[in-house]
Design brief:
Shape of chain A: flat
Radius of gyration of chain B: 20 Å
Shape of chain B: globular
Distance between the termini of chain B: 52 Å
Number of helices of chain A: 3
Strand order of the largest sheet of chain A: 1-2
Strand content of chain B: 15-25%
Oligomer: heterodimer
Radius of gyration of chain A: 13 Å
Number of helices of chain B: 11
Helix content of chain B: 25-40%
Distance between the termini of chain A: 17 Å
Strand content of chain A: 5-15%
Order of helices and strands of chain B: EEEHEHEEHHHEHHEHEEHEHHEEE
Largest sheet of chain A: 2 strands, parallel
Largest interface: A-B, 20 and 23 residues
Largest sheet of chain B: 4 strands, mixed
Strand order of the largest sheet of chain B: 8-7-9-14
Structural class of chain A: mainly alpha
Helix content of chain A: 40-55%
Number of strands of chain A: 2
Chain lengths: ~70, ~325
């Protein structure tokens, strides 16, 4: 699952295509429109999701990009 | 590497280790790991969920909860209620609370994902509250009253597990605060000299409603001696102006008034609207905070009605200001009979 703000949607969908993730696994959060402090929260959310991905990869013993290939 | 204004810095955050409980055998694979709020939970049995759902169809969806837009069914909410320790009697209020937080006015997406320290404060008003076991007297916000405390807690568990606002992941609140564990107050209609809160919100007198607000703190107003309204108005408006400087703007303010303070106002001939107007007038003179970026003067509230006056609590002169987060507005929903 990739969770992104609207500004990063295009890159996220390209990434999802590259790693053969179904489009439904890319979740776009309209945070930038909704929240006055999105500039602060979005980088933190991205970092947390990236760290979560690292944990997943450690548990799997392989990069997520290798899954399903 | 993160940015703050023009500065960049390494992340200082520490990964948050969360406790989980497995409900997969009850609710399916997506609930294999239900995150707790850090307190022990009551693991539900199938019979418990069935008991909570006596009036509902378990598979029906109540609402989609942001940020992940998880569709919360009655069955899932019942599971959260049991995890939180709710008695079955409060479930209709919990359902209404969930319906209220997804109202557009409340802007739940922002509430769930802000770096601010924002809780959902649930206000219950109406004649059915006491029948359901809710408590409007001393320590109403806790500790003690099971219905109040567990309702707020169950809502938080649903926001986390169905809505995806997992602390340290999509909930990036800098500090959090205990109100995020649970925050539920109940109107003391018997102790209030005024018309009920819910009728002032446009609901029928015999209705029971839930109002949700985005609360980011609690500031006690201690005044056990004033017998006239001016000191109370001065204290409250001064606190509101100070809280405004801390970040709340263009939204609302919640004042939890003890019956003693409400009666002081009433004995001077002021009803709820009169107090709202008087506070708004005072704020206009006090609230001079200027936004550094735009240079515009910012107000904590823009109309008298933005000051929510809610009578609750036990005997004594200790009311409280609850600053409400500027990105959200209160929303009310009637509890289904």
């Amino acid at each position: 699952m990739a969770i992104v703000a609207p500004a990063f949607e295009r890159q996220a969908r390209a990434y999802a295509t590259a790693v053969k993730l179904p489009p439904s696994r890319v979740l776009v959060l309209p945070i930038g429109k909704a929240s006055s402090d999105a500039a602060e929260s979005i980088p933190l959310i991205k970092e947390a999701v990236a760290n979560s991905l690292k944990d997943l990869e450690m548990a799997l013993g392989a990069p997520v990009s290798k899954l399903g290939t | 590497m993160l940015m703050s204004g023009d500065a960049t810095y390494e992340s200082f955050d520490i990964p948050l280790k969360l406790e989980t409980v497995d409900l997969g055998d009850l609710l399916g694979a997506s609930f294999r790991e239900v995150v707790t709020d850090g307190l022990p939970v009551v693991k539900p049995a199938r019979a418990d969920i069935a008991g909570m759902l006596a009036r509902y169809r378990g598979d029906d969806v109540i609402a989609a909860i942001p940020p992940v837009m998880g569709e919360c069914t009655y069955e899932q909410l019942a599971a959260m209620a049991i995890l939180a320790g709710c008695p079955a009697s409060v479930f209709p209020v919990l359902v209404a609370a969930l319906q209220a937080v997804v109202h557009d006015r409340f802007n739940l997406l922002a509430v769930q994902t802000t770096t601010g320290n924002v809780a959902v404060a649930v206000l219950v008003s109406g004649p059915a509250a006491s029948e359901m076991g809710f408590h409007c007297g001393c320590n109403g916000l806790g500790p003690g009253p099971r219905a109040n405390v567990t309702t707020g807690r169950a809502l938080r568990l649903a926001l986390m597990n169905v809505g995806g606002a997992i602390p340290g992941l999509l909930d990036v609140s800098c500090l959090g605060w205990p109100g995020k564990l649970s925050c539920c107050a109940v109107e003391h209609t018997g102790g209030s000299p005024w018309t009920p809160f819910h009728t002032d919100r446009g609901f029928a007198r015999d209705a029971t409603i839930v109002t949700v607000t985005a609360a980011y703190g609690f500031i006690e107003m201690a005044d056990a001696v004033s017998t006239s309204v001016e000191p109370l108005l001065a204290n409250l408006s001064g606190m509101m102006a100070a809280a405004r400087a801390s970040g709340s703007r263009g939204s609302e303010a919640l004042v939890l008034l003890t019956p003693q303070h409400a009666h002081t106002f009433a004995q001077a001939g002021l009803d709820r609207h009169d107090v709202q107007v008087r506070l708004h007038e005072r704020l206009a003179n006090l609230d001079q905070h200027v936004d550094g970026a735009s240079g515009k003067s910012l107000r904590m509230v823009t109309t008298p009605e933005d000051v929510l006056l809610f009578v609750t609590g036990g005997n004594g002169g200790k009311s409280a200001l609850v600053p409400l987060w500027g990105g959200s507005h209160s929303a009310s929903i009637a509890v289904a009979k």
